[in-house]
């Protein structure tokens, strides 16, 4: 943000998109530090959206749910994997999303089609955060 914001201010326009997590929408089984960090991103996005709205700069965030990446998920019953999450939130994770699906949401948020979207947190999680 520090590197790109001055250029956006000079241009009088810009779109910042942050990647948070569905853990930034509620408490989670991922641990207090992870959840707090994701809530921090959510707060930053909301603040930037208000602070720079009048300069033509938008700030939004995607909140991915389970996504197939290089990060492994420990599925042992005693680990913080899908079985523990299912027990804690009372819902099955459902399918795992792809990085391409997350990227598509980011592309949309930066597009002219989303020009009036500012300060939004877009869950990209197959409805997991709705549970």
From TrEMBL:
<protein>
    <submittedName>
        <fullName>SDR family oxidoreductase</fullName>
    </submittedName>
</protein>
<comment type="similarity">
    <text>Belongs to the short-chain dehydrogenases/reductases (SDR) family.</text>
</comment>
<dbReference type="InterPro" id="IPR036291">
    <property type="entry name" value="NAD(P)-bd_dom_sf"/>
</dbReference>
<dbReference type="GO" id="GO:0016491">
    <property type="term" value="F:oxidoreductase activity"/>
</dbReference>
<dbReference type="InterPro" id="IPR002347">
    <property type="entry name" value="SDR_fam"/>
</dbReference>
<dbReference type="InterPro" id="IPR020904">
    <property type="entry name" value="Sc_DH/Rdtase_CS"/>
</dbReference>
<dbReference type="Pfam" id="PF13561">
    <property type="entry name" value="adh_short_C2"/>
</dbReference>
<keyword id="KW-0560">Oxidoreductase</keyword>
């Amino acid at each position: 943000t520090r590197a790109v914001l001055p250029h956006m201010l000079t241009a009088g326009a810009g779109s910042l998109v942050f990647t948070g997590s569905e853990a930034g929408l509620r408490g989670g089984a991922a641990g207090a530090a992870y959840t707090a960090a994701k809530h921090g991103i959510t707060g930053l996005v909301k603040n930037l959206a208000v602070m720079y709205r009048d300069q033509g700069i938008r700030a939004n965030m995607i909140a991915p749910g389970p996504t197939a990446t290089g990060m492994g998920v420990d599925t042992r019953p005693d680990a913080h994997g899908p079985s523990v999450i299912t027990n804690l939130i009372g819902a099955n994770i459902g399918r795992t999303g792809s990085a391409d699906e997350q990227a598509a949401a980011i592309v949309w948020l930066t597009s002219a089609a989303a020009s009036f979207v500012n300060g939004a947190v877009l869950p990209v999680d197959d409805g997991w955060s709705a549970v």
